[in-house]
Structure formats: structure tokens, C-alpha cells
Amino acid sequence: MKKRTPVSVIMTKDVITLNHNDNLEVAEGLFKTHNIRHIPVVSGASIVGLLSYTDLLRISFADAIDEDEQDVDTVVYNMFTIEQVMAKNLVSVSSATTIKEVAEILSKKEFHALPVVDNDKLVGIVTTTDLINYLIEQY
């Protein structure tokens, strides 16, 4: 295993993003369509937050029983904006950050994704799943 391998080797480069003005129904659609769990939120070219599928589930009634779940979720989603639900105090890394450094950050924090930012521009996202897949490839 190479110790100085940059995160750019394992990060997702074609990042699905949300605009900070999008609504939570758009977010849910992206999560489900692309089978992802984290979406960076941008304003222009700048990243302003990160929305996780867990954040969305926290405010929804996804497990409602005997209700028309779609209608319940729509009502709840209309009560909040993406900016109210997303994580705002982001930790990010550059594409030159080593995979080891990324693993250390993720192992100490309570989140599972890091935006990859070069020169104030979002260039990728790296998740714990990316790290696990990298480790599997090493064996």
C-alpha cells in the first residue's frame, strides 16, 4: 500500500450537487436516482454545505406507517430549506491530501464524506465507502 497516494485517485470527480436554492424534494430525488448518500450544496462555484441522506431522514417521516408517505414527506420538506438542514461548518481536503490523511480525518469525526476543494472550487467528494473500496483493492 502506497503511503503518499493522493485522495484524487479514489475520490468521485463527477460530483452531483445541489444549489442552495433547490428544495428538499429535489434533494431526495437525487439521492434516490443516483443511489448516493451525500450531496455538496453550492452557491455559484462555491461549496456552502453538505447534505446527507441521513439529514433528510432526520426531518422526514420516512418510516411512517399507515400514512401516504409521499404526501407526509412533501409537507415536511416544504417546512424546511436545504440551508436549514445541511451541514455548514465543513471540513474539506485538497486533491493532494493523502488517502491516509483522509482516513485519519474520517476516523475521528462523526461524518462520512469530505468535499475535495482546490483553489476554492469543488473538484470531488471522498466517502468512507471510497476508502473501504480502496482497501479492498489492496488485498
UniProtKB/TrEMBL annotation:
SMART domains assigned: CBS
InterPro entries: CBS_dom, CBS_dom_sf, Diverse_CBS-Domain
Keyword ATP-binding carried by entry: no
Source species, domain of life: Bacteria
Keyword Ion transport: no
A Pfam family it matches: CBS
Chain ranges of the CBS domain: 11-67, 86-139
CDD domains assigned to the protein according to its UniProt record, in alphabetical order: CBS_pair_AcuB_like
Keywords assigned by UniProt, alphabetized: CBS domain
Protein name stated in the entry: CBS domain protein
Organism expressing this protein natively: Ichthyenterobacterium magnum
